[in-house]
Amino acid sequence: MVGPSRSRETEDPPLPEPDRKATMSRWLPLKAFRQGSPLFGNDVVDDDLSEGIAREELSGLAYMFWGRIVVLGFLALWVFFTLPLERSGAYLLAIVTFALLGAPPYLLARRGLGGNAVTAVFLLLDAGVLCLILLVPPPFYVEGWTPQINLRLPNILYAGIFLVGMALSYSPTLVVWTGLSLTAAWAAGYLWIASLPGSVTNTSRQMLDGGFTPEEVIRRFLDPQSVSLTVLTNQVIFLLLITSLLTLAVWRSRRLLRRQVAAEAQRSALSRYFSPNIVRELSTSGDALIRPERHQAAVLFADMVGFTGLSEGRSPEALMGLLSEFHGRLARTAFAHDGTVDKYIGDAIMVHFGTPRTRDDDPVRALSCAVAMIADIESWSRERQRFGSEPIHLGIGVHYGDVLVGNIGDERRLEYTILGDAVNVASRLERLTREIGCTLVVSDNLVRAVRQAGGDPAAIAPALKAYPARTVRGRKAPVAIWCDTEPA
Fewer CB within 10 A of the end CB, N or C, for the chain? Predict the structure, then answer.
């Protein structure tokens, strides 16, 4: 029997899919973020913007549908309790019919089968049915009631309510279409009644300038067959004005919506490059990050021990998956402790606490983060072993001291980072874990800072033991350290 190839032997068995989004972190020019440079990833932002607008439009259809249901529900209750049963039945049937007409565009849009064209067709049908209900008197009206008399009722107000409800759509186009459809349907119905046999049409100018006496004007106005074209003109103007104002309001709301969605899209895209605390700072006072500042911070370096051996024989895809999972776990732990992920360096990660703003508990969170990282990687390592993969070992170094926080590079390519002796010492302490044979090495500076902040190093990291001072590369004076193993 032929055995599997070496590359297959060293590939890890499939593990649960990691959270890829939490692992994405790169460097990004802050100036490019504010100016909308292609370096920011406008394709991502445009996609997010389009998706955000589409979500809001679907949400608008939902509000329109449920708003219609609520309003019609109130009308149904009002009809049921105020009208006799023989009259309320027909009205309730009309209300139910109008309610059902609002369901198809919303349901189709939810399934991705509809769109503005489908919605426009149903809105045209809505306008026609609504005007039919409002203009044509039902057969159970009192004897002698004519369609012409029905024109004198304030039914146009219900049409106005329907039109106002379109403001929930976030679509100026749909508002204009609905207003024009409703106006056309109303005018067509009104003129149809005016054209019926026996209808007597008149205008205000005819009534006032026709030489009629006041008694004749009143008699013509009260005539059951009288139809005022002036009233129709006023109603059409009313609908068109409401349509214009609503269109302007929805257009302005949509602009504000686009700005809000764009800001969220940019924030989302920015979070793929920066830690959450940096994103918050950029969202509120981005210019503050441009100015370099000197203060104290805790610096943490975490590295995968034996990465060279683990990477031997692995395909690039498998190696990338391993690093993504490793980085993702460390980054999530860092974010949970409100740390700033500075960069990924191969199989290592650099995190600092005290940026962009210092806090009293920076050293406490740094030590707690280191302990949590170790626990998480140990848990992952046991899980890998159950699947038949090699265990993962970690080395972490943490130091507390003065740093310079700000941007380095030029205006075309900036990197927000920290510089200073504290960074170098933390990196050297992480390297000491191999020499000493431990997982965690922290400086005495950090331990003292934890105590000064009100924390208890023994409670946070019970395994820590004082270790003889060590000389690290790049420093003349030895560094007092603590390790999670007993001194030899």
Answer: N
CA angle 436/438/444 to nearest 5° reads 80
Same structural domain for residues 332 and 405? yes
Q: Is the peptide bond before 356 cis (omega within 30 degrees of 0)?
A: yes
Domain boundary among 236, 268, 300: 268
Does one domain contain both 319 and 464?
Answer: yes
**CB of 485 closer than 8 Å to CB of 464:** no
Backbone angles phi and psi of 359, in degrees to 5? -135, 155
CB neighbourhood size of 174 (10 A): 24
Residues of the chain by 3-state class (helix, strand, coil), percent to 5: 60, 15, 25
pLDDT in tens, 307-330: 877 777 778 888 888 899 999 999
Q: Domain limits at 164?
A: 40-268
Candidates 424, 373, 404; CA nearest to 297 is 404
Contact criterion met (CB below 8 Å) for 180 and 134 = no
DSSP calls for 65-99: HHHHHHHHHHHHHHHHHHS-HHHHHHHHHHHHHHH
Count of CB atoms situated within 10 Å of the CB of 194: 18
Task: Let me know whether 200 and 262 are in one domain.
Answer: yes
User: How far is it, in rounded angstroms, from Cα 322 to Cα 98?
Assistant: 58
Total domains in the chain come to 2
Look at residues 402, 217, 416 and name the one whose alpha carbon lies nearest to residue 294.
402
User: For the CA atoms of the chain, what is the radius of gyration?
Assistant: 36
Distance of alpha carbon 293 from alpha carbon 411, whole angstroms: 18
The reply to whether 26 falls in a domain is no
Residue 415 lies in a domain: yes
Q: Is the dihedral of CA 19, 20, 23, 25 positive or negative?
A: negative
Residue 446: CATH number of its domain: 3.30.70.1230
Mean pLDDT of 170-189: 90
As a whole number of angstroms, the distance between CA 358 and CA 295 comes to: 8
Does residue 112 share a domain with residue 223? yes
**pLDDT tens, position by position, 191-248:** 999 999 988 888 877 776 766 777 777 887 788 888 889 989 999 999 999 999 999 9
Distance CA 90, CA 102 (A): 19
Q: Please choose, from the candidates 148, 102, 145, 141, the residue with its C-alpha nearest in 3D space to the C-alpha of residue 125.
A: 102
Give 164's pLDDT tier (boundaries 50, 70, 90): confident
Return phi, psi of residue 378, to 5°. Answer: -65, -40
**8 A C-beta contact, residue 151 and residue 235:** no
Quick count: other Cβ atoms within 10 Å of Cβ 156? 21
> pTM of the prediction?
0.53
For 3-39, the DSSP string reads PPPHHHHHSPPP-PPP-HHHH------HHHHHHT-GG
User: Per-residue pLDDT tens for 373-419?
Assistant: 999 999 999 998 998 888 899 999 999 999 998 777 766 666 778 89
